[in-house]
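User: Can you help me understand a structure? I only have the sequence.
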Amino acid sequence: MEKVLLKLLDIVACLRDPDHGCSWDLQQTLSSIVPHTLEEIYELAEAIENEDYDAVKDELGDVLFQVLILSKIAEDEEQFAFADVIENLSEKLVRRHPHIFAREKFFSIAEQQTSWEQIKRKERAKKCLDGGASQSILDGISIALPALVRAPKLQRRAASLGFDWENLEAVFSKLDEEIKELQAELGSPNGESESNKQRIEAEMGDVLLVCTNLARRLGVNSETALRKANQRFETRFRYIELQLSQQGKRVKDQDLDSLQRLWERAKRQEKRL
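Assistant: Let's start by predicting it. Here is the structure, written out as tokens:
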């Protein structure tokens, strides 16, 4: 394993060699690599969801390359090296798993999760203290995360201090309230004014925020749920296109009732699979 890793590190070093390296790799910075890293992560997620294990293996390699090239760029800038990344990760894993490495005992997964959050809270407090910044329970939740991923993280942190609805009925009630507020803005006499558009956006955001909170309470991952819903939409719409194409017809020439009937047929086919 060590030999394989050293070979890979040598390859990455060659790509960044100032005299004989790849011109594209040499032009990259930490910031410029970020979009590629995000793309590789999503491609890995798709491969896992499709249970395509050859693709999972391939995409894991691509993700690993992102870690290595980012570490090499940081090393070239005299910030840190790949070895520092490994050492930092090793220390973190040991620190966050006292039941494995320090023989602490937990009697439930919930108790273990509580310990995990307490350890992370201490880590965040130390970072704030070292940096001279004020501490918030919401510290450390990256603003670069997709909104559907970040929202439940914020909500869970707030809920850990008691800022949460008592039950699902209260969440549904809040969702109804937010939808009514959105409807009220849509019916505003100001219509197309810029301020009205901004209020509509704000109310729509509130509706989505409550939806993510509902998903959290149901134990559903909002990002995964929406991604799968997108896949279902795409599959059903492609079915509609195919059925009409086989009849020599076009989607845009059909009335909505006809399209809805094909949509329902596509849903019934899904259930039979």
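Now, to help you interpret it: The chain has twelve helices and no strands. The chain has a mean pLDDT of 91. Let me know which part you'd like to focus on.
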